[in-house]
Amino acid sequence: MDETPEEGLQEVAAQLNELATGLVRHLLSDRQGMSLTTAAALSRLEQEGPIRLTALAAAEGIAQPSMTALVQRLERQGLASRMADPEDGRVCLVAITDAGHELLAERHRVQRARVAGLLTALPEQDVQALSEAMHTALPIVRHMLREALSPCTTRGGTAS
């Protein structure tokens, strides 16, 4: 029986979900003392640079009081700092510190090593097949996520 386009989309969605969930569970089974929310906030600070606390809370989908508490913990740990906004001195920006960068770099090294460990158990042809699949899939998934996260796009991918 032939698959409808909608069924095809649902199957790809299910497979991507299984892949993401499986890898995330494996990588987070040893969190190195850091919650997913903390890691996500630090990663956003690393990627976007200094940001208003309200914008950080909104981007991470958590309430401002919860983000305030998280930023305070990050400050106590030396992983983030607050600074005056050069464009508006009344506003504080949150920035990642050098220690925060180092912690994320170590976290990424550990995660890559864990995935590499999984790959070493595979036959070479499976590793090659995964490599080729990733070269194809990763740019497509990155594009898909950029489109989904862009405030200026509609479902069809065109600017509104």
TrEMBL record:
Quote the Pfam families the UniProt record gives.
Answer: MarR
- The reply to whether DNA-binding figures as a keyword in the UniProt entry is yes
| Domain of life where this protein originates | Bacteria
Family annotation (Gene3D superfamilies): Winged helix-like DNA-binding domain superfamily/Winged helix DNA-binding domain (1.10.10.10)
The keyword DNA-binding is assigned to this record: yes
Q: Which InterPro entries match?
A: HTH-type_Bedaq_tolerance, HTH_MarR-typ, WH-like_DNA-bd_sf, WH_DNA-bd_sf
SMART domains associated with the record: HTH_MARR (SM00347)
**One example GO MF annotation:** DNA-binding transcription factor activity
Return the protein name: DNA-binding MarR family transcriptional regulator
Which organism is this protein's natural source? Answer: Kitasatospora kifunensis
